[in-house]
Write a structure and sequence with these properties.
CATH superfamily: Dimeric alpha+beta barrel
Family: Belongs to the YciI family.
Structural class: alpha+beta
Order of helices and strands: EHEEEEHEEE
Strand content: 35-45%
InterPro entries: Dimeric_a/b-barrel (IPR011008), YCII (IPR005545)
Organism: Microbacterium bovistercoris
Protein name: YciI family protein
Length: about 130
């Protein structure tokens, strides 16, 4: 079964400021986490997202497309990255999610996939 682990981080600024040393430590922790998922043969993909300030949100308002700079939701946290894993069940997905380094400073969400694309074709989740 495919699950996406969504990593939520505090928005930069205020009390949440990373210096170069903290950033490097975080990068090492995520590299190790990704390698552990890979070595366990459960990692399908992973992505670190750019800060939410460079987000562009699209919505349809009737027949009119509205394009908004920034995230749609005003929040103190941002979606910072994702890992897509293929594991037996929710319990196993939770086990992997609890090892995400960012759990120390933000929410980690586990969401089952419904469908996914393989070679341009939608496939149901197992």
């Amino acid at each position: 079964m495919r699950y996406t682990i969504l990593l939520h981080y505090p928005e930069p600024g205020g009390d949440f400021v990373l210096d170069d040393e903290a950033m490097a430590a975080g990068q090492r922790a995520f590299a190790a986490y990704a390698q552990t998922l890979h070595d366990a043969e459960v990692l399908l993909s992973g992505e670190v997202l750019q800060p939410s300030v460079v987000t562009t949100t699209l919505r349809m308002d009737g027949d009119e497309l509205r394009v908004q700079d920034g995230p749609f939701v005003d929040s103190k946290e941002q979606l910072g990255g994702t890992f897509v894993i293929d594991v037996a069940d929710l319990d196993e997905a939770i086990g992997w999610a609890r090892k995400a380094p960012s759990i120390a400073w933000g929410a980690v969400e586990v969401r089952p996939g419904a469908t996914h694309v393989v070679d341009g074709e939608w496939q149901p989740n197992a």
